[in-house]
Amino acid sequence: MRGARVLVDRYRLDGVLGVGGMARVHLGWDLRLRRPVAVKVCTATDEVGVRRFAHEARTLAALVHPGLVPVYDLAESGPTPFVVMRLLDGGTLRDLLAAGPLPTGRVRELGARLADALAHVHSRGVVHRDVKPGNVLLDRHGAAHLADFGLARSADATRLTRVDEVVGTAAYLAPEQIRGEDVGPPADVYALGLVLLECLTGRREYGGGVVAAANARLHRPPEVPRDLPADLVRLLTLMTSLSARRRPTADRCARDLSGRP
Q1: Which of 92, 172, 185, 249 would be a feasible disulfide site paired with 122, CB 3.0-4.6 Å?
Q2: Cβ atoms < 10 Å from Cβ of 78
Q3: Known binder of ligand: residue 40?
Q4: Which class for 229: exposed (0-12), middle (13-18), buried (19 or more C-beta within 10 A)?
């Protein structure tokens, strides 16, 4: 494409797929392998933002799982830090939910895959901290892939946020995140529980403004419909428990949702 920007003489940027706080995702073309790709380019201008982007790039490159977006290449430093990933063209789970609630079987399938991906992430010492429908990408077959590790934290990483800094999306934050406490894998399980509940009901459990959405869960647990299958009612109730200690592991959630022992 004439006049298109090309990174490292290989990746042509043909258009913008999405824009975030510290990066822009482009539709790209790998000139060497002649295939479409997604290229996430760092747009942060401050030191913390650039470090977060580099951390996300390293985190993504170290994680390999069918439920995660594969990384093909990265440049975490230099004039234009970027990450090259598989292009997923099935939209997001948020787009899918715009049409209404999903069948129970489909929610089990999506939940099992995402929980299994989180189990892999947690086993590598990483907490995602921003699980939400907009961060779940779908491929053309409808399979889910957890994306956007910009707020993820590794157990051995240098802290890029203060202990009392709230990070994530208000509607899906775990109670411990709202209180500004250090969070672990149970926070991701909680957020996934809210995402699955939204898939089943077609509505966001904690809506309203940022403050209202954040404070609501400190005073009431989510309302899990009692007409759902009993095993789903029990699992979602545990996943969204106000107490992090009561929540099952992501691996346990994956096994329960898929019917594995």
Answers
A1: 185
A2: 10
A3: yes
A4: exposed
